[in-house]
Design a protein that fits this description.
There is one protein chain. It is built from 13 helices and ten strands. By secondary structure, the chain is an alpha/beta fold. The protein has a seven-stranded mixed β-sheet with strand order 3-2-1-4-8-6-9. Strands 5-10-7 form a three-stranded mixed β-sheet. Helix 1 (21-28) links the parallel strand 1 and strand 2. The relative contact order is 0.14.
Length: 335
């Protein structure tokens, strides 16, 4: 790193990510701008993730792994947010970049993401995420825009994700860090706080290359978890209203079918529009008959997933475990 350039720390949290953590670390330590350190907080993995982190220290002296079992759902209602706060508190730099297991990063990712901060243009930068074209499934393509993920590296993004996010330590302190009140709103909660304090810079060429490897089932489960968390937190109500209107329109069209098919045809046309309008420029580059069919199917069930899970979260007000926490819980029950 240029001695005149401010130091940058990269932070991440992991829990049972043995299959993904090596690829993330290799890409982070291959950046054109070398991070001062990479702080990774493990919330108590049982699948060998912690052992991989310890072994990687011989390859990467700047790696700073921390094992903190308070950063899991057994102890904290917001374990991911807590892990990020622990990592940032342990980091030494005034500029912090967030990365995520399940992603890899292009060599110029860190330089591009932090450029607006180092230039004094903003204290907060968002890079977004893109499905990794080298490792994607049919359902990754189908569900990407509904989960706030791009399909191409050059796509514009206005969404927040801690898979690619940078900010100053001063901003992190001033807004109270990542909110540790819920499993599901760590980055969205931080984003709401950060945007109330400053205008973010959206960096087009700093996307995380995301590798969810979705099936239809896992794509539904992920959206359901997001919406349940939104319901718990009471955020994004406009999206709930929009999707509720779609559900009611479908019900009304079916009810009118004995008298006229026009309403149902109109709803089908609108649903096709909703399926294809998001990220159309990127989707048409990868569209195949199978991808189009998968996108249509997923889009048709999206409003029902959104409404049911948002309302369930609003009523029940508890955290649903993510797959990593579920794995941890299962392993502990077997002991």
């Amino acid at each position: 790193m240029n001695s005149k350039m401010p130091a940058i720390s990269v932070i991440s949290t992991v829990l049972n990510e043995a299959g993904d953590v090596d690829a993330m670390m290799d890409s982070l330590f291959g950046q054109t701008v070398t991070p001062a350190e990479i702080v990774i907080v493990d919330g108590g993995s049982t699948d060998g993730t912690w052992e991989k982190l310890q072994a990687a220290r011989s390859r990467y002296p700047a790696l700073k792994p921390i094992r903190d079992e308070s950063c899991n759902l057994k102890v904290s209602p917001g374990p991911i947010a807590r892990g990020r706060n622990v990592a940032i508190a342990a980091a030494s730099s005034e500029v912090i970049a967030c990365a995520d297991a399940g992603c890899v990063y292009a060599p110029d990712w860190l330089a591009n993401l932090t450029a607006p901060i180092l230039a004094g243009e903003s204290e907060y930068a968002l890079g977004g995420a893109c499905i990794d074209p080298a490792d994607r499934t049919l359902w990754d393509i189908a569900c990407a825009p509904f989960l706030g993920v791009s399909l191409t590296l050059d796509a514009k993004t206005k969404s927040c994700t801690a898979r690619s996010m940078a900010f100053t330590r001063r901003l992190w302190k001033s807004i109270g860090g990542f909110p540790e009140t819920s499993l599901h709103i760590d980055d969205s909660g931080f984003d709401l706080r950060a945007r109330s304090a400053c205008k973010p810079a959206f960096v087009r060429n700093a996307k995380a290359l995301y590798r969810p490897r979705h099936s239809l089932k896992s794509a539904i489960v992920q959206l359901a978890r997001y919406e349940f968390g939104d319901g718990v937190a009471g955020i994004r109500r406009v999206r709930l209203v929009r999707n509720l209107a779609r559900c009611l329109a479908e019900i009304a069209a079916l009810a009118l079918l004995p008298w006229t098919p026009i309403a149902l045809l109109g709803v089908l046309v609108l649903e096709i529009y909703f399926a294809l309008r998001l990220n159309w420029q990127g989707f048409r580059q990868v569209a195949t008959p199978s991808a189009i069919a998968a996108r249509l199917l997923y889009s048709f069930i999206v409003p029902w997933i959104v409404c049911w899970n948002y309302l369930a979260g609003t009523v029940l007000k508890f955290n649903r475990p993510n797959p990593q926490n579920a794995t941890l819980s299962s392993a502990r029950l077997q002991k």
